[in-house]
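Researcher: Next sequence.
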Amino acid sequence: SSGINAEWPLRPGTKAGQIDTVLELLRQQVLNLRSKGNLVKDSSTYKKQLLAENEKLKRQVEDLKEQLVDLETVNGRKQFGSQPATAASKAAPVEPAKALPITPAPMAPVPKENKKKAAKKQGKPAQHQQAAASLPVDVSRLDMRVGFINSATQHPDADGLYLEEIDCGEPEPRQVISGLVKHIPLEQMQQRPCVVLCNLKPAKMRGIMSHAMVMCASAPEKVEILDPPAGSKPGDKVTVEGFSGTPDQQLNPKKKVFEGIQPDFLVSPEGHALYKGVQWKINDQVITAPSMRGCGIK
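Model: Next structure:
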């Protein structure tokens, strides 16, 4: 419609005007074509921009998927891989695959030495479990000894705790933390004998490790350190007649062994330390509480 009509009549008297008109029409047609060309160029550029943005968004989606999978894996959520179904797979039902017979691959011979090592590795945990299960939960499981408190100071980070250095008859003294500040003055914690439970698992108390526990006669209103008999020395073992088992190397806190034994500890009316009514002894002499009677021992 914007082209020149070939049959358009030319009047002789107005040839110059007709030429001007034709030129004007040609100029407008060129401008129109140019604008269309620019539009095409702009459309092509816009399409490229859209494609680039689309690719960028795809990459971002894939990255987010990977992050989601990682987070779910860390939180213990199982991941199941899946593939998009094709048109063919949607249209045609899939027949179940027939099970094929599986032939086990021949195993390489294991050297005799390796077999022995493997048997030892498998046997050790089972032996330990059986041994632990067969042990009675009684006072023989506890490694209680005479200790001597070389020194005691206030715990640097806890007002209610003492930090003690105790000789337990070993090459080096043990570092022990006790919650006795409210019951025993610091001067009475120096250079004195005591009874120490030595096979508890070491525990950190307000930032400092404790490697034993001082045994005390205990009541809500009062606590006293038990007294070993005269003449005993650091490292001497506590025994209870009728309970002659071997102490654990270290008590397993998960098994609650001490918690199962401690309720049967008692100070008798005579001031003797008892387990199920039987006296605690060191070298056949009785362990006592200084003044408390009829209370528990912790």
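Model: The first strand starts at residue 144 and ends at 154. The chain has a mean pLDDT of 80.
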